[in-house]
Amino acid sequence: MFSTPTFDELNIWAALPMMALAFGTCILLVADLFIPKDKKVYTAVLAGIGLGVSLLIALLQASGVEIGDKSTAFEGIFVVDQFTHVVNVISLMAGIIGIMVSYDYLERTGTERGEFYTLILFSTLGAMLMGSSRNLVMIFIALELLSIPLYILSGFRRPMLESEESAMKYFLLGAFSSGFLVYGIALIYGATGSFELVNVWQTAVDILEGEGAGQFTLLIGIAMVLIALGFKVGAVPFHMWQPDVYQGAPTPVTAFMSVTAKTGGFAAMLRVLVTGLAVVSASQGKAIDVWQDSVQVIAVLTLILGNFVAITQTDLKRMLAYSSIAHGGYILIAIAAGGTFGVGDSSAQAALVYLMAYTFTNIGAFAVVIALERNERNTITLNDTKGLAQHSPLLAAAMTIFMLSLTGVPLTAGFIGKFFVFKAALEANLEVLAVIGVLGSVVSAYYYLRIIVNMYMIEGDAHPVADKQPLALRSALWLTAMGTLILGILPYIMTDLARDVTLAIVGR
Amino acid sequence: MEITWQTIAFAAFAVMTLGGGLMVVISRNLWHSALFLMLSFFGTSGLFVLLVAPFLAAVQVLVYIGAIAILVLFAIMLTRRMMGLEETQNTQWPAAAAVAVILFIILVITVSPLVDEKAVTDIFGDKVANFNANLPVDPDAKDSGVVANQDLNIVTVEAIGEALVTRDGFVLPFELASILLTAALIGAIVVAREDEA
Question: Which structural domain, as residue segments, surrounds residue B160?
Answer without folding.
Answer: 156-197
